Amino acid sequence: MNNQLTPNLKNERHAMEVINESDVMETEEIISKLNDLVALEFNAIETYEVAIERLENLDYRAKMTEFLGEHERHLMDLCDAIIQEGGTPLDGGDYKQFLTKGPVIVAGIGGDKSVLKAMLLNEGLTNKLYKNANDEIYPGYIQLMLKQALGDVRHHRVWIESAIEQLD
After folding, report:
1. Closest of 40, 148, 165 to residue 95, by C-alpha
2. DSSP β-bridge partners for residue 4
3. What share of the chain is helix, strand, coil (3-state, %, to 5)?
4. Within its chain, how far is the Cα of 11 from the centroid?
5. Whole-prediction pTM value?
6. What pLDDT, on a 0 to 100 scale, did the predictor assign at position 133?
7. What are phi and psi of 90, to 5 degrees?
8. Average pLDDT along the chain, 168 residues, taken 10 residues at a time
9. Do residues 130 and 146 make contact, with C-beta atoms less than 8 angstroms apart?
10. What is the DSSP string of 76-137?
11. Residue 109: what pLDDT?
12. What is the pLDDT of residue 95?
């Protein structure tokens, strides 16, 4: 059994622990789970594009554009990891696209606060799925990428919550 010293990314203090290579999921499972996140990112990107079009406040548009760029980076990182693992990344979103983009389109009728509330729901889902991914044992370079993405989407959620509170 080959052991490796890997950061324990589940622990916020980043303690080091020994993980058996047999604990890391199989390549096919890695590719499948990363492709699920690719679909999530395609959906997030399209949802951000719709939100940006519907927001009136230029500062909100600028921040959403920044977040859009982070989701585009996550997508590229995920695709690169899938290719490195020998797989083929998906080239689009999935059926959830209607569930994530639809509320933002409808919310556009209600103004910036409604759009931000719809985006908060979407970021809640994104946070949950990245949190779940961070609970899995991936090869180290993927663990680090997923940890960064989780930090990004947590930041998105907090910023959106703050912006909504300011509108109350």
Report:
1. 40
2. 19
3. 75, 5, 20
4. 19
5. 0.80
6. 97
7. -60, 155
8. 44 50 82 95 91 94 98 97 96 54 50 91 94 95 97 98 94
9. yes
10. HHHHHHHHHTT----SS--THHHHHHHHHHHHGGG-HHHHHHHHHHHHHHHHHHHHHHHTS-
11. 55
12. 45
| Strand ranges, E, within the chain | 3-7, 16-20
For Cα atoms 87, 36, 127, give the angle at the middle one, nearest 5 degrees.
135
According to the model, what pLDDT value does residue 154 have?
98
Residues 101/125, Cβ–Cβ less than 8 Å = no
Q: Domains for the chain: give ranges and CATH numbers.
A: 26-167 (1.20.1260.10)
Q: What is the largest CA-CA distance in the chain?
A: 59
Q: Which amino acid, residue 57?
A: N
Contact 16, 8 (CB under 8 A): yes
Q: Exposed, middle or buried by CB within 10 Å (0-12, 13-18, 19+), for 168?
A: exposed
pLDDT confidence of residue 93: 55
The candidate with the shortest Cα–Cα distance to 152, out of 58, 69, 45, 39, is: 69
HSE-CB of 156 using CA atoms within 13 angstroms: 31
User: Which residue, chain included where needed, has tokens 């779940």?
Assistant: 132
Question: What is the per-residue pLDDT for 91?
Answer: 83
Name 162's Cβ contacts closer than 8 Å, sequence gap at least 6: none
| Residue carrying the six token digits 């180290």 | 140
43 token code pair: 């959906």
